[in-house]
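Q: How do we represent a protein-ligand complex in a form that can be generated token by token?
A: Start from the inputs.
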Amino acid sequence: MPTANPYPSPQSKSVASQADRHVCILGLGYVGLPLGAALAQSGLTVYGVEIMASRAADIADGKPHIVEPHLPEMLKNVLEKKQFIVSTKIPAPCPATIFIVTVGTPINEDQRCRLDMIKDVMHEIAEVLKDGDLVILRSTLKLGSTRSICIPILDRTGKDYDIAFCPERIIEGNAIKELHELPQIIGGSSVRAAARAAKLFSRLTPKIVTVSSIETAEIIKLIDNITRDIHFAISNEFGMLCEHLGLNSHEVFEAAQDGYKRTKIPKVGLVGGPCLSKDSYLLQDSFEDLALAPQIPKVARVINEGLPLHGANTIHKFAQKLPSFSNRPVLAVLGAAFKGQPETGDIRSSMTGPVVEHLRRLFNFSETRGFDPMVTLQDMESLRLNKMESLEEALQNADIVVIANNLTEIAQFPLDQMSRLMRAPGIIYDFWPQHRSAPEPTVPGVHYLAFGNGANQSGTP
Ligand SMILES: NC(=O)c1ccc[n+]([C@@H]2O[C@H](COP(=O)([O-])OP(=O)(O)OC[C@H]3O[C@@H](n4cnc5c(N)ncnc54)[C@H](O)[C@@H]3O)[C@@H](O)[C@H]2O)c1
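Then emit the structure tokens for the protein with nicotinamide-adenine-dinucleotide bound:
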């Protein structure tokens, strides 16, 4: 049964000023689609532009391609009311006076920021730009790109326009809630630009934080994500050190923080996803030509990106010591999205990919299976995993089980039951051990190894 929508259309706002009542959002992905639906729900008319025709058609049909609580009902509602109009190109003429850019800014193989999509979209906006329009950049950018890339393209139109950088800081899987709760950072080209952007976002969120420049807003976005990446890296590094010493990092972190607020350390685990995996590189790219090269973000990436190999090597070494371990083992990977909580189906920069690749180099698998109900068959196949419909099916006669994300269904599955379904001798390797309160498996020959816990990895199996 659909849950009640806690973010209904505000009645009072529907009679607000007629200015800036038509918004065009370019890029209906994880950022653009929830934002577009939420702004439409707030009473504005939103023109959502999505270049991928199949994606645009699905959205127009009320079928979001992303997993976000409340989004399906919200989308259905605004589509029915014709407050959210989807197309593959900006309508011409375009009634919107605000253009919001939410296209992707991935990195390329050299770990430099790809700005081609931003440039393309700027040219598309330039074609329809009118005097008085406001352009809002919401994609995460290499520092200075608003001024060095976007403004010159728009300036060539000769139009008198406003521009602002207003970063998106939602977490995937909780976007609609956070859009209505998180403070919105705003950096405008002028007081008027910032005020217009503030007015727009105050339709959604109660707290607006206006900063003095576009660049201030740009760096805040990077600092937010990179700080998170660094925190996870600290935890993972300490996890590895504890493991090496035969200690349980979970116990160490819990005790260290028990009643002692000055130590703040997150739990160990794989760090992936489209943002944390790239934003440190955007920062490094931003300083490439300067003498100042940020060091801590770089080191944090090395640590977090090293986890899949560390786990794969640990499994391999342990398997080599197991008498009669299968030479054509079956691998079952539990969790393919880059995280399990909040739930998402997003496999972009999920560490499951590197985990599977490292293991494939070390073992001659007879089968590689994956279980993640949030992830599509196609995405599962792109990770070279056969999609299993149930945990039980994935575990049946598996020799190696890797817990690769913290999806509740996986975290709560009892280890004992898991080990009974597997083949013995077998290995369960858990990258997310903190989610498991159950005791270790009691089936003889099935071994539970947890990242960051040397206590259950020491000695001969
Ligand atoms: N995913 C997140 O949780 C998140 C959070 C904060 C910030 N960001 C940043 O927001 C930006 C968008 O991220 P995302 O995850 O939504 O990416 P995404 O790939 O899910 O969505 C971008 C969409 O833009 C479309 N697109 C590309 N060029 C277009 C064009 N010219 N016209 C219309 N549509 C076009 C793509 O087809 C795609 O559907 C990135 O810069 C990202 O770093 C993402």
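Residues 10-17 have pLDDT under 50 and may be disordered. The domain at 17-212 is CATH 3.40.50.720 (Rossmann fold).
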